[in-house]
Design goal:
single chain, Glyas_Fos-R_dOase_dom, Extradiol_RC_dioxygenase, 321 residues, 5 helices, Glyoxalase family protein, 2,3-Dihydroxybiphenyl 1,2-Dioxygenase, domain 1, VOC_core
Amino acid sequence: MSISTSGLHHVTAIGGDPQRNADFYLRTLGLRLVKTTVNFDDPGTYHLYYGDRSGKPGTLMTFFPWKDAPSGRHGTGQATTTSFSVPEASIGWWKQHLEDAGVETSRVTNRDAEDVLTFRDPDGLELALVAHPQGDPREPWDNGHVPAEHAVRGLHSVTLSVNREEATAGMLTEGLGLGFANQDRNRFRFTAGEGGPGALVDVLVTPDAPSGLVAAGTVHHVAWRAPDEPTQAAWREELVDRGVQVTSILDRQYFRSIYFREPGGTLLEVATDEPGFGIDEPLLELGRALKLPPWLEPNREQIQAMLPKLELPDENNLERA
């Protein structure tokens, strides 16, 4: 593979009640809602994007929240843990903060020289906060609920659960251009570019685990970064030449996307860094209004009638943004 990714672009999961989802990710985790739109393939549901101040690639966690969605099953063939990067000295603060919010947490463990705190969101999605000993230079979003000195810096890594690692490892290294970093028993770590927070994926081998079922509380897909559309088009051609079944290039308004499955079953995406979330609303107003792509705009009234009401806290759009 002559083209390689620089790291994670976003992780997309299935949620339940959209208001509960927004309250948790905005207030408990302290992220910013950078875009309120709809699932372009099913516009009767929201697509909510959370991230840093401007929604930079590598900071994004997104959701399709269906209020009455059945619960999924965690297992092989899916991303089972989404990890966020926090400052090294903040794990203790986060443990107390989450417990004060009624969130049950694990004990703090140390893996690969990083402190890790695991917990679940209101729909059962497994999340982790990871403190990297070399730090993370990305600037946090400061919304008043989580002090900037403790705030999430962006995505740290994802964990893919598989029955066997060989074919998945081959896709990560030969299809995405990642490098093998290390092995800790049944956990294999791969890095994009120079590695570090936002450029990591762990492959967890659990031969006897059941297959996962994608529904509420599970990850739908994991997206990796491509710098621009020409690179993405060339990348797609290389994947097709390798025999990978890849979608056509799809317009997601804020980036362009291709999708394919790695051999272990997880749906992967390659998404462009451009054009970003500022193309249809100012930075100060990100996420405030429902945004639709041009091809759905004529149906705005019908779409809005199908969507449940969603109230955003004022701190999502602070004047100091």
